[in-house]
């Protein structure tokens, strides 16, 4: 085969590519979409696979002849030969691909086209070399779906079009989430559950029903009922066997008390898969098989009517279709000849109906933790009013629930909360005035339109992590997705828009990440987004590159989410070290805020000593809590400078906001200093840009909170390099996987109260997190370094920063609490005593439903295949953790 073959895009690219290519052309010519045989369609530049094509090397004797000139010559030669120049082959200078022109071609014509082309190319003086390209037989997994609206889902399309094709229809590369390559590698969100917290999900529509999580509540059911169910699902030969017989075959003895289903399934999987009898499965495939079972069956709830069914209710405004539309973006079923395809179409979808009626703090709190061992990702396309004058966010319980979710949800890896940045753009609203967007526990997602620009409705802020696609103004396309079929709905819409449409796409991409690496923590997910989002040109964006090399813009966060990059990074991601934080004292200032051009500047120095206790070296989120009295809140502008000089506009002036009460302990946050050194001077600069002067504002007090980890700048650069090396996709196959510890079995609670049991759970979760963080760090650094990382806990009890009284009372800053020391959580002093071992901590409380786990198995709740493989390492570290 000729050398140029590898680079011929038409021939070697995945089939998804011609499909998308076709979509582009369809858009151009306003063709009515039809579905099958997409690839057979041709446009002027599209070559039908099966049509003829030649690789041609043109003479470029003059050496530095310009590319443009060569291109023109190629066009001319192609025309002479009766072919069309499809552009340069990859990066090979002087090499072009000529294809048979479009149009129906008979077999007879093919022969004459070939003869003519061969004759011309062979005789042409400018042609140094030519070779007809023959199609390779592909056995690659492909994704071309028969869903009628799939071709209109422009946001899913592939990056990597041959540039010449993009020029032809005025489109630039990179205006999509690049997901098809991920699907081709069989990554579709399998085993991951996404819950849409909204106005309901119509789970009976065709594109949702098969992926909807439904079934009986697992925890209430006795083991004797569950076991046959799981056993027969996994091993058909065991169907109908007596529960106790299965149990004894698996080596457990009999069951009397009910145990959590997922734990039982996990146990069953581990033991059963290693059993010599019956169907032989590797542990990995067993785990994969079990994962959906473990997390099934029910993730949904209706908090508006207080029942388990989140079915939306028809309303006067025909408006309760929102949740269903979001659900479709995530998990619409592919290839069912109906409507569209979800980003993570292999994932499972659940719904929590909470927005159709009065919403209270406690309802919000319940929603955020609902079925949090089943639901992995919470997609929340809502927030406080986007009217340009509201300053609001989660209240006491909502905040506590978010925090509880990241600590105890997803078996201790942390629930992923995705929130939309907000739709108040035309009111000058800013998501730093939205407490959900500001929260460190959420992934804040903004929107860009199909041209990559910030739409009129989108809000910007310093805490925005990334953006993805949605609709724009009238001339631009919106998102095609599932719709309800109640009232005027048809089950499918082309008109979903707003940042509401962006957040679910992000949730879907995160589901893809969790499939390839189920043990990513909530912070890992944020890190991966920061590391992989791509900056792109937009005149409105104020890109600034920080000291760690990450570029951020208030409009676009760290850039565009790219499913390919996210999933490849997730695949090789080892967990970031535990969350370290630093809280400054409350800094009482009582200083007047003079009118612009004057400004008020206050600073706070964070020294090496301050950070030594927590081990905080590099930053993640930086938060500032301020109390300001001001007669017109919207006139204030607040900027925060990190030690590097990186500036964040945390408080923007808002013309509509004439609230006279100022800010009362409002927390602004920024992600713009991500990865930078934590040590140094932080400056808060406040200006009053108002002009009508009754009285001046006063900065009463402020407080700085830094979040981050013990990663050094060098660690971060190393990680950046590692991730880039993975972007070729070389690790994205089933044969490669890093060890992933299974999670903790954490019982769910009904209603939201922080009980002593919850606190105990938190202690255990914290211990667990630290435990395997250290486990990873050991794994990573053992070869390079002399495990300095565990130092904090090695020589006696852990030293952690003391919380301020305020945070202690509010229950915030829990993550900086010595979680492995239950005494402190109860308010007692930390003593210099010998640390408890993991075994002590994993008291039977955790597994209170079943006495069989610990006693019969004498293994801890962390029992899993991986531990069996490396008992020494784990045993040895236990003492150091707590
Ligand atoms: C979609 O369904 C068609 C049959 O309707 C089938 O030929 C095709 O392989 C399916 N595609 C995928 C990606 O499963
Ligand atoms: C998009 O995905 C393809 C694989 O399908 C990959 O080769 C390409 O590099 C990706 N492009 C970007 C910009 O990430
Ligand atoms: C994708 O993965 C699933 C589950 O592991 C498996 O059943 C299926 O055969 C895989 N598909 C392909 C095309 O490899
Ligand atoms: C902080 O450090 C800077 C220089 O390092 C110094 O000029 C300043 O006085 C310090 N401020 C406080 C409040 O300690
Ligand atoms: Ca469909
Ligand atoms: Ca807002």
UniProtKB/TrEMBL annotation:
The keyword Protease applies. Keywords: Cleavage on pair of basic residues, Glycoprotein, Golgi apparatus, Hydrolase, Membrane, Protease, Serine protease, Signal, Transmembrane, Transmembrane helix, Zymogen. It comes from the Eukaryota. Its cofactor is Ca(2+). PROSITE patterns: P_HOMO_B, SUBTILASE, SUBTILASE_HIS, SUBTILASE_SER. One of its GO terms (biological process) is protein processing. Residues 301-320, 792-841 are annotated as: Disordered. It is a single-pass type I membrane protein. Serine endoprotease that processes various proproteins by cleavage at paired basic amino acids, recognizing the RXXX[KR]R consensus motif. Likely functions in the constitutive secretory pathway. This is Proprotein convertase subtilisin/kexin type 7.
């Amino acid at each position: 085969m000729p050398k140029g073959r590898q680079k011929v895009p038409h021939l070697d690219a995945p089939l998804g590519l011609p499909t998308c290519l076709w979509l582009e052309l369809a858009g151009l010519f306003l063709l009515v979409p039809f579905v099958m045989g997409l690839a057979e369609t041709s446009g002027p530049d599209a070559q039908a696979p099966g049509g003829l094509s030649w690789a041609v090397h043109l003479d470029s004797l003059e050496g530095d002849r310009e590319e443009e000139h060569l291109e023109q010559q190629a066009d001319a030669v192609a025309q002479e030969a009766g072919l069309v120049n499809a552009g340069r082959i990859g990066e090979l200078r002087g090499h072009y691909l000529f294809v048979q022109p479009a149009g129906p071609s008979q077999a007879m014509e093919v022969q004459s086209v070939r003869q003519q082309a061969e004759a011309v190319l062979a005789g042409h003086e400018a042609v140094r070399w030519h070779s007809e390209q023959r199609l390779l037989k592909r056995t690659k997994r492909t994704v071309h779906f028969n869903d009628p609206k799939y071709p209109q889902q422009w946001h899913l399309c592939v990056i990597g079009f041959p540039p010449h094709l993009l020029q032809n229809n005025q489109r630039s590369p990179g205006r999509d989430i690049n997901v098809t390559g991920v699907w081709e590698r069989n990554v579709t969100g399998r085993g991951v559950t996404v819950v849409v917290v909204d106005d309901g999900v119509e789970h009976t529509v065709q594109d949702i029903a098969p992926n909807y999580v439904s079934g009986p509540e697992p925890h209430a059911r006795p083991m004797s009922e569950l076991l046959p169910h799981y056993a027969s699902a996994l091993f058909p030969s065991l169907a109908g066997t007596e529960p106790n017989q299965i149990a004894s075959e698996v080596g457990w003895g009999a069951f009397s008390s009910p145990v959590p289903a997922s734990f039982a399934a996990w146990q069953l999987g581990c033991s059963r898969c290693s059993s010599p009898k019956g169907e032989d499965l590797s542990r990995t495939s067993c785990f994969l098989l079990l994962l959906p079972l473990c997390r099934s069956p029910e993730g949904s709830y209706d908090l508006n009517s207080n029942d388990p069914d989140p079915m939306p209710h028809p309303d006067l405004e025909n408006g309760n279709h929102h949740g269903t539309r979001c659900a479709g973006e995530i998990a619409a079923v592919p290839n069912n000849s109906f409507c569209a395809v979800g980003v993570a179409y292999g994932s499972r979808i659940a719904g929590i109906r909470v927005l159709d009626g009065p919403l209270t703090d406690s309802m919000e709190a319940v929603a955020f933790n609902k079925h949090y061992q089943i639901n992995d990702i919470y997609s929340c396309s809502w927030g406080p009013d986007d009217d340009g004058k509201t300053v609001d966010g989660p209240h006491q319980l909502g905040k506590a629930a978010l925090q509880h979710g990241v600590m105890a949800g997803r078996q201790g890896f942390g629930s992923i909360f995705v929130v939309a940045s907000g739709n108040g753009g035309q009111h000058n609203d800013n998501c730093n005035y939205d407490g959900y967007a500001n929260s460190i526990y959420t992934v804040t997602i903004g929107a860009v339109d199909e041209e990559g620009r910030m739409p009129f409705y989108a809000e910007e802020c310093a805490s925005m992590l990334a953006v993805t696609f949605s609709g724009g103004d009238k001339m631009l396309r919106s998102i095609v997705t599932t719709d309800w079929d109640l009232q005027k709905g048809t089950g499918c819409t082309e008109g979903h828009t707003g940042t509401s449409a962006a957040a679910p796409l992000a949730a879907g991409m995160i589901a893809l990440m969790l499939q390839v690496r189920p043990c990513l923590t909530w912070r890992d997910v944020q890190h991966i987004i920061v590391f992989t989002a791509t900056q792109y040109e937009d005149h409105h964006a104020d890109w600034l590159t920080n000291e760690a090399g990450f570029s951020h813009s208030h409009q676009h966060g760290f850039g565009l989410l790219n499913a390919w990059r996210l999933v490849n990074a997730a695949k090789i991601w080892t967990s970031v070290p535990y969350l370290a934080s630093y809280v400054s004292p409350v800094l009482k200032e009582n200083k007047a805020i003079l009118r612009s051009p004057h400004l008020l500047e206050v600073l706070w120095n964070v020294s090496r000593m301050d950070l030594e206790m927590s081990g905080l070296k590099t930053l993640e989120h930086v938060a500032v809590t301020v109390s300001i009295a001001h007669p017109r809140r919207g006139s204030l502008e607040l900027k925060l400078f990190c030690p590097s000089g990186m500036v964040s506009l945390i408080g923007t002036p808002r013309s509509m906001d004439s609230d006279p009460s100022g800010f009362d302990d409002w927390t602004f946050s920024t992600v713009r200093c991500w990865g930078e050194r934590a040590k140094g001077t932080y400056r808060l600069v406040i200006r009053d840009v108002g002009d009508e002067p009754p009285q001046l504002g006063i900065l009463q007090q402020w407080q700085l909170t830094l979040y981050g980890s013990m990663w050094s700048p060098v660690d971060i650069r190393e990680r950046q390099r590692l991730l880039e090396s993975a972007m070729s996709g070389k690790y994205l196959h089933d044969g490669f996987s890093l060890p992933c510890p299974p999670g903790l079995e954490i019982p769910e609670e009904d209603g939201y109260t922080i009980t002593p049991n919850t606190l105990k759970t938190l202690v255990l979760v914290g211990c667990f997190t630290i435990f395997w963080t250290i486990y990873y760090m050991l794994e990573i650094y053992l070869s390079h370094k002399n495990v300095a990382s565990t130092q904090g806990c090695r020589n006696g009890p852990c030293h952690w920063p003391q919380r301020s009284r305020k945070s202690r009372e509010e229950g915030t800053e829990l993550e900086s609490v010595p979680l492995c020391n239950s005494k402190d959580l109860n308010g007692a002093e930390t003593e210099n005593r010998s640390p408890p071992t993991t075994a002590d901590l994993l008291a039977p409380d955790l597994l209170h439903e079943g006495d069989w786990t610990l006693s019969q198995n004498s293994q801890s709740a962390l029992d899993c295949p991986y531990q069996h493989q490396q008992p020494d390492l784990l045993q040895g570290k236990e003492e150091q953790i707590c």
